[in-house]
Amino acid sequence: MNEVAGLWLLGVGLALFALARRVNVGPVRGWGGLAARIGLGDARSWAITHEEIEPWITAAGVAAGLAGLASLSIEESSALAAMTTLGLGLCGALLVVAAVTGRARLRRPGA
Q1: Among candidates 66, 65, 63, which has minimal Cα distance to 97?
Q2: In tens digits, what is the pLDDT along the chain, a chain of 111 residues?
Q3: What is the 3 state secondary structure string of the chain?
Q4: Dihedral sign, Cα of residue 29, residue 17, residue 63, residue 45
Q5: How far is CA 34 from the centre of its chain?
Q6: Which among 11, 34, 46, 72 is least surrounded, fewest beta carbons within 10 Å?
Q7: In Å, what is the CA distance from 26 to each residue of 17, 37, 51, 73, 74?
Q8: Contact yes or no for 10/17 (Cβ under 8 A)
Q9: How far is Cα 90 from Cα 62, in angstroms, rounded to an integer?
């Protein structure tokens, strides 16, 4: 079970890391079109917001990846469940910080 949890967290970490690199390129169409409906439809807003959130999304990916690596080395026990929960919790908290700081950056005067 530790392999499943570890590889799953590593996958989440890599996906978030790749997403952090992608968001700086420009608005994503398709499923990412949700951003247009919440106020990030123009290129200026997209650039301002994603300049602010890229480090937070990268940190979330690194947190999930490190938790995944740690999970691979833990035998199946309550410690594995705690590591998985901690990794996902930290990842989720960093993504919330990213969302809040991104929206706050748009509301600052001069943005």
Answers
A1: 63
A2: 678 888 888 888 888 888 877 665 555 555 544 455 555 566 677 777 778 888 888 898 899 888 888 888 888 888 888 888 888 899 889 988 988 888 788 777 665
A3: CHHHHHHHHHHHHHHHHHHHHHHCCCCCCHHHHHHHHCCCCCHHHHHHHHHHHHHHHHHHHHHHHHHHHHHHHCCCCHHHHHHHHHHHHHHHHHHHHHHHHHHHHHHCCCC
A4: negative
A5: 16
A6: 34
A7: 16, 15, 11, 38, 39
A8: no
A9: 10
User: 């929206």: which residue's tokens?
Assistant: 103
Considering the entire predicted model, what is its pTM? 0.76
